[in-house]
Specification:
The protein is α/β, with parallel strands linked by helices. The chain has helices at residues 16-22, 46-55, 67-80, 98-108, 126-140, 145-158, 169-173, 179-187, 211-226, 245-254, 267-273; strands at residues 5-9, 25-27, 30-33, 36-39, 61-63, 86-90, 116-120, 160-164, 190-196, 202-209, 231-237, 257-264, 278-284. It has 11 helices and 13 strands. It starts with a strand and ends with a strand.
Length: 285
C-alpha cells in the first residue's frame, strides 16, 4: 500500500509554496472576464485578478473543473502509484458543482481502479485549505486513509471562520443580497459579519455599523467559542495584505493564540466577496 495522495481545488487558497512542499495536487476552477477565461491560481494569480476586477464594468463569472479534468488527475496519480489511496477535498457542495465533478470523475474509473475518497469540505477558502494541509501532513507522516479521514471530520467540526467585506456591491452583484439592502447598507456603513453554516452555506452572523465594531464583535464571538484554550488562526485577505491586522492584534492580545498563518483569498471566492475582504479561521491546537 502506497502513501495517501491529496488532491484539492484552487478555492482552498493554499499558497503555492505550501502546496509544492507538501505535494498537494491542485485542480483549478476557472474565472471568466467576458470571453477571456483564466485558470484560477494557474494563469491568473490573485493580484492580477483583483486589478482586473476593479477595472471591470461587469462581474466576472466562475466555473468548476469538468469531471474529465478530475479523472485525468486521478488517472495520472494512479499510474504513478496504483496502490496509493487518494483523498480529494473540495469546496462545499452547496456552493459549487466542484465536489459533484470530482464524484463523477471517481465513478468514471473502472471498477477496482484506485482507492479514492472524495470529501465535501463543507467550507471555503482556507476553511478548505486547513483541512487539505492537515491531510497532506498526515499523509507525509505515513498515516492511513482512514486515519486521515477521521482527523478531517474532527478538524472540520472545530474550525470557526468569519469574513468581513469592504463593500456590499459584490454580494449584490452575485445575488447574495438585494439592491435595496446593498444601497442602505453602504449609506449606513453597515458591516455584515459573514460565516458558513454546517453545510458550507454563506450566512450573515450579525450586522454592525463600522469596521471597529465588526472587529470587536468577531473577537467576542471567538472568545465565547474558545475561551482560554490554546488556538491557532489563519488570517486571510483579498487585495490588501495585512487588512486584517487590527483583528489579528486584538485576537493575539485577548486570546491564547499559539500559531498564526496567512493567505490570500483567491479569484473564485474573491469574485463573490470583492476587494477589501478579510477573514479569520480559528481552531484549537
Amino acid at each position: 500500500m502506497g502513501n495517501v495522495r491529496i488532491v484539492t481545488d484552487s478555492t482552498s487558497d493554499i499558497p503555492r509554496q505550501v502546496r509544492e512542499r507538501l505535494g498537494i495536487t491542485m485542480v483549478p476552477l476557472k474565472v471568466h472576464f467576458g470571453e477571456d477565461t483564466y485558470q484560477d491560481a494557474v494563469t491568473i494569480e490573485a493580484e492580477q485578478f483583483y486589478s482586473k476586477l476593479k477595472s471591470s464594468s461587469a462581474l466576472p463569472t466562475t466555473s468548476q473543473p469538468s469531471p474529465v479534468e478530475f479523472s485525468e488527475v486521478y488517472e495520472r496519480l494512479l499510474e504513478e502509484d496504483p496502490e496509493g489511496p487518494i483523498i480529494s477535498i473540495h469546496l462545499a457542495a452547496i456552493l459549487s458543482g466542484t465536489y459533484q465533478s470530482a464524484t463523477i470523475a471517481q465513478s468514471m474509473l473502472e471498477d477496482g481502479d484506485g482507492d479514492i475518497a472524495v470529501v465535501d469540505s463543507k467550507s471555503a477558502s482556507y476553511g478548505i485549505g486547513m483541512q487539505v494541509v492537515k491531510a497532506a501532513e498526515l499523509a507525509a507522516a505515513g498515516e492511513s486513509k482512514e486515519v486521515i479521514l477521521a482527523e478531517l471530520e474532527r478538524l472540520r467540526s472545530g474550525v470557526q471562520l468569519y469574513f468581513l467585506v469592504d463593500t456590499l456591491d459584490y454580494l449584490h452583484k452575485g445575488g447574495r443580497i438585494g439592491r435595496a439592502s446593498a444601497v442602505l447598507g453602504s449609506l449606513l456603513n453597515i458591516k455584515p459579519i459573514l460565516s458558513l453554516d454546517e453545510n458550507g452555506g454563506v450566512y450573515s452572523v450579525d450586522k454592525v455599523r463600522g469596521s471597529k465594531k465588526a472587529v470587536s464583535r468577531i473577537v467576542a464571538m471567538l472568545k465565547d467559542s474558545f475561551g482560554d484554550d490554546p488556538v491557532g488562526m489563519v488570517m486571510a485577505w483579498t487585495d490588501v495584505p495585512g487588512s486584517a491586522a487590527e483583528l489579528e492584534e486584538r485576537l493575539k492580545a485577548e486570546m491564547n493564540v499559539q500559531e498564526t498563518g496567512y493567505t490570500t483569498v483567491g479569484s473564485v471566492i474573491g469574485t463573490h466577496t470583492g476587494p477589501g475582504t478579510s477573514a479569520v479561521f480559528m481552531y484549537r491546537v
